[in-house]
C-alpha cells in the first residue's frame, strides 16, 4: 500500500511550482521530483519541434530517477508533446490542458470561457478544441500573453511593472462577458492577484495546475500507485538548468514550506 | 472520436440524480442511463451482503444495455461493492467515496473534516480510512444520519419537517471546528440549503457526487471514451424499481431539464 516512488514534474522554468504547491496540499504523503528548464525558458515562442525535443530531454532525466508518474506541468509542452510522450512511456503521463478544460466547463455558468497562455499554447488551439469538443454551446476567447512568463522568471511578479503589463495585456478580454478565465500557463497563478484585480471579482480564474493535481490524485487511486498510510510527509527534490539562486528564491517565497535547495543540471548533452 | 454509448448510473433510489445533474452540466454530450432501486430503498441499514447483491443486480441490468462506464452513484453501495465490481467488469467503474475524499482534502484548510452518511457508509469507515491514509494529520468526525434518505425519497426534502430533522441530527457536529463537511450520501445535496444553514456559512460542503463527475470526465479522457464533437445534447433514460410517478416528480423538479418519464422495471427475478 506504500508506494514511495516519486512523482515527476517538468516545466520550462519555475511555473510548475504552482502545481507543486497544490500537490503539497492535496498529496502530502507523496515524494516528488521537480525539473525546471530555466536556462531555456520561455518555451512559448519556440517552434513545436524544439519544445518536443526539450520536453523529451526533461522526461528522460526524470524517468531515470524512477518516477511512478509524470506530470507535464507546462501548458506549452503539454500542447505539443503530451500525446507522443504518454504513448511511449509505460507510466501514466498527465498534462495540464484537459484538467484546465474540465475545471472551466465545471465552473462556467454562461458558457463564455476565456483562455490566456503563451504564444505556443494559444496557437495550438488546444484549449479551444478541448472545450468545444466537449460542449457544442461553449464560446472560447483566447489571448496570448507573451510578456507574463518573463515577469515571473525574473521574480518581478509582484512589482508595479507586473501590474502595468497585466492590465495592458488583458484589455482585449474586457467586455467579452466571460465568466471564467483559464490561467493556461502554470506561471500565471503567481500573477493571480493582479489578474483577478484586472478582470474583476465576477470572473472565476481556473488554475490549470491545481486542477491537474486532482487528476494526479485520481490516477494514483485508479492505478493504486498512491503512497498511502505514510508515516511522514513526502519530500520534494528540485533540479534546474539555470540559476539555483534565483530558482530557490522564487520557490521558497512561493511554496512557504521546507527550504528548497535546488541542484543544477545540464540537459541536451546526452 | 464519437463514442455514443451511454454511461450507466446506479443508486438505491433518487439520490444519484444529484450526480446526474452535475453530469448534465459537465458532460452535456454524453448519453446516460440511470437506474434507481427505489422499491428497496433505503440501503443504509441493510447488511453488506444484501447491498452487494442488489448492486450486482443493478449492474447486470445496465451492462446488458451496453454502457461504456459504470458510476455507482450511491455511497452505501460504493463502500461495500465497488472493489468487487470494478475487478470483475471490463469497463471503468467509478464510486463516489474517493472523489468526495479528494474534494474534502483539497478544500479543507484546518484538516478537520466532517462526514455524514447512511449507517452503512459510516459503519464501513470508508471515508475515515481514505482520508487518513492520504493525510496523516487529518481529523475526521463522522455521523450517521439515517433519517435523511427517507425525507428525500418521500419528496419532503423542502418541508419544515426536513428542517427540524436536519437541525436535530447535526447537533453532534456543532463545535467540532470542522471547516469541511462531506455530504457522504448522494441524496443529501437535495437537503443542501438546509444543511448549509444549520452548519453555518463557514463550513464548506463537499458534494461527493459532483466530485465524482470530475473523475468520470477525467476517465473518459484518459481512456478516450468521450462522446467528443457531438452535434446534439446527450439523452438521459431513467429506470426505477418503484413508483415512476414519484420518481418523475422528484427528477423533474431537481433536474429542471428535458422532461423525465422513467420506466418501471423489476430486479431480482433473474
Architecture overview:
Chains A, B: Pathway: Cell wall biogenesis; peptidoglycan biosynthesis. Chains A, B: Substrate binds at residues 11-12, 43-44, 75-76, 186-187. Chains A, B: It holds the Pfam family Asp_Glu_race. Chains A, B: It catalyses: L-glutamate = D-glutamate. Two copies of one chain form a homodimer. Helices cover 43% and strands 16% of the residues of chain A. With 270 residues, chain A is of the alpha/beta class. The model of chain A has no long low-confidence stretch (mean pLDDT 95). In chain A, helix 11 links the parallel strand 9 (236-240) and strand 10. Chain A folds into two domains: 7-95 and 210-264, Rossmann fold (3-Layer(aba) Sandwich), CATH 3.40.50; 97-207, Rossmann fold. Chain A is globular, with a radius of gyration of 18 Å. In chain A, the strands form two sheets. A six-stranded parallel sheet of chain A has the order 4-3-1-2-9-10. A four-stranded parallel sheet of chain A has the order 6-5-7-8. The longest helix of chain A is centred in the first third of the chain and has 16 residues, at 48-63. The interface between A and B is medium-sized, with 31 and 31 residues.
Order of helices and strands of chain A: EHEHEHEHEHHEHHEHEHEHE
As a percent range, the share of strand residues of chain A is: 15-25%
Give me the Rg of chain A, rounded. Answer: 18 Å
> Which secondary-structure class do the elements of chain A indicate?
alpha/beta
Give the assembly state of these chains. homodimer
Arithmetic mean of pLDDT of chain A: 95
Helix count from the secondary structure assignment of chain A: 11
Biggest beta sheet attributes of chain A: 6 strands, parallel
Principal-axis shape of chain A: globular
CATH architecture classification name of the largest domain in chain A: 3-Layer(aba) Sandwich
Largest interface: A-B, 31 and 31 residues
Q: Estimate the helix proportion of chain A, in percent.
A: 40-55%
* Topology-level CATH name of the largest domain in chain A: Rossmann fold
Amino acid at each position: 500500500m506504500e508506494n514511495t516512488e516519486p512523482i515527476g514534474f517538468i516545466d520550462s522554468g519555475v511555473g510548475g511550482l504552482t502545481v507543486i504547491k497544490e500537490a503539497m496540499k492535496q498529496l502530502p504523503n507523496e515524494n516528488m521530483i521537480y525539473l525546471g528548464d530555466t536556462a531555456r525558458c520561455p518555451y512559448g515562442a519556440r517552434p513545436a519541434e524544439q519544445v518536443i525535443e526539450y520536453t523529451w530531454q526533461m522526461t528522460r532525466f526524470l524517468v531515470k530517477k524512477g518516477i511512478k508518474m509524470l506530470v507535464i506541468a507546462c501548458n506549452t509542452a503539454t500542447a505539443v508533446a503530451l500525446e507522443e510522450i504518454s504513448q511511449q512511456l509505460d507510466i501514466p503521463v498527465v498534462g495540464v490542458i484537459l484538467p484546465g478544460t474540465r475545471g472551466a466547463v465545471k465552473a462556467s455558468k454562461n458558457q463564455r470561457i476565456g483562455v490566456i497562455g503563451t504564444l505556443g499554447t494559444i496557437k495550438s488551439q488546444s484549449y479551444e478544441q478541448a472545450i468545444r469538443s466537449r460542449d457544442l454551446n461553449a464560446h472560447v476567447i483566447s489571448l496570448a500573453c507573451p510578456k507574463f512568463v518573463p515577469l515571473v522568471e525574473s521574480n518581478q511578479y509582484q512589482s508595479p511593472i507586473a501590474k502595468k503589463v497585466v492590465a495592458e495585456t488583458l484589455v482585449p478580454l474586457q467586455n467579452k462577458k466571460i465568466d471564467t478565465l483559464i490561467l493556461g500557463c502554470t506561471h500565471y497563478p503567481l500573477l493571480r492577484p493582479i489578474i483577478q484585480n484586472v478582470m474583476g471579482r465576477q470572473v472565476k480564474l481556473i488554475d490549470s495546475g491545481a486542477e491537474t493535481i486532482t487528476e494526479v490524485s485520481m490516477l494514483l487511486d485508479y492505478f493504486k500507485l498512491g503512497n498511502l498510510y505514510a508515516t511522514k510527509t513526502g519530500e520534494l527534490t528540485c533540479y534546474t538548468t539555470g540559476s539555483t539562486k534565483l530558482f530557490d528564491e522564487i520557490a521558497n517565497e512561493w511554496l512557504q514550506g521546507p527550504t528548497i535547495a535546488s541542484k543544477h543540471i545540464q540537459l541536451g548533452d546526452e
